[in-house]
Design a protein that fits this description.
This protein is an alpha/beta fold and about 280 residues long. The chain has ten helices and twelve strands. The structure holds 1-{4-[(3-aminopropyl)amino]butyl}guanidine. 1-{4-[(3-aminopropyl)amino]butyl}guanidine binds near residues 53, 89, 156, 187 and 223.
């Protein structure tokens, strides 16, 4: 008998992935966490029925979410990652040699445990001594956090505990937590299905940041296969010149599979329907 994982959206979009077996299936205090071995796409992490990551394509999302903001900071030292208990974003953040501290604020310790046990390709860097894992509600943590050079919001969809991470109050607290040259990035959903999420995030962030830019990245295992992120900066422009990005990319010794200075700039180009909506 063949075993398949399926995710669908109210619009009628659906994803179907063939599985070999279930590696873990737990109900935490906050959510249901399932980890599967797929038959051809590596491991698949699902929370409350929604794909969080698949080994096949997680690099596109994690690389863009971390490197676009961090390369627009001259030397990020203290970085906060919100959500992202799988460790994928932390892995990319730590690739920047200037980073001395990466604080992972994940509300659900079970996500961290499951990923540490079964997803070493993604979570492996969580044991780096520069990493501090805080089990807390990020909205609360953000209110008193200070002196971060970069904050990367790797949340799930804006329902349940993640909803507050898409509010004006959270963006304001986030800005307070940043240093004067501070940068941030957040995930903001599919441009086809959740256009209002992107529009809301861009508007909310524009009240706090000088530079705000949405960007597009393909993630084949997320709804519609096309995803959006929004990056914001208090200091440098997010569309920094290609020469400067290349210089920093080389100097930092980054090795990436999706991110490149050229991809960085290309991802900032917006299709007219999105530009109009903004
Ligand atoms: N962050 C974004 C997941 C959103 C997926 N939504 C969905 N499948 N409906 C996931 C965490 C990756 N580090």
């Amino acid at each position: 008998m063949e075993l398949w994982f399926e995710e669908s959206t109210p619009e009628g979009w659906g994803l179907k992935v063939r599985l070999e077996r279930t590696l873990e299936s737990v109900q935490s205090q906050f959510q249901r966490i399932d980890l599967y071995q797929t038959s051809g796409m590596g491991k698949l992490l699902v929370i409350d029925g929604k794909v969080q990551l698949c080994e096949l394509d997680e690099f596109t999302y994690h690389e863009m979410l971390a490197h676009v903001p961090l390369l627009c900071h001259p030397a990020p030292r203290r970085v906060m990652v919100v959500g992202g208990g799988d460790g994928g974003t932390v892995r990319e953040v730590l690739a920047h040699p200037s980073v001395e501290r990466a604080v992972l604020v994940e509300i659900d310790p079970e996500v961290v445990r499951v990923c540490r046990e079964h997803l070493p390709t993604v979570s492996g860097r969580l044991s780096d001594p520069r990493v501090e894992i805080v089990a807390a509600d990020a909205a609360e943590y953000m209110r008193t956090a200070r002196d971060f050079d970069a904050i990367v919001v790797d949340s799930s969809d804006p329902v349940g505990p993640s909803e507050v991470l898409f509010s004006g109050e959270f963006y304001s607290d986030l800005r307070q937590a940043l240093t004067p040259q501070g940068v941030m990035a957040m995930q903001s959903g599919s441009p086809f299905f959740y256009l209002d999420q992107i529009v809301g995030a861009v508007r909310g962030l524009k009240e706090q940041f000088r530079h705000v830019r949405p960007l597009i990245v393909p993630v084949p295992t997320y709804p519609s296969g096309t995803w959006s992120l929004v990056a914001a900066s208090l200091g440098e422009d997010l569309g920094l010149g290609v020469e400067e990005l290349v210089r920093r990319y080389r100097e930092r010794g980054l090795r990436t599979r999706w991110y490149s200075p050229q991809m960085h700039l290309a991802s900032l180009a917006l299709p007219p329907f999105l530009e109009q909506a903004l």
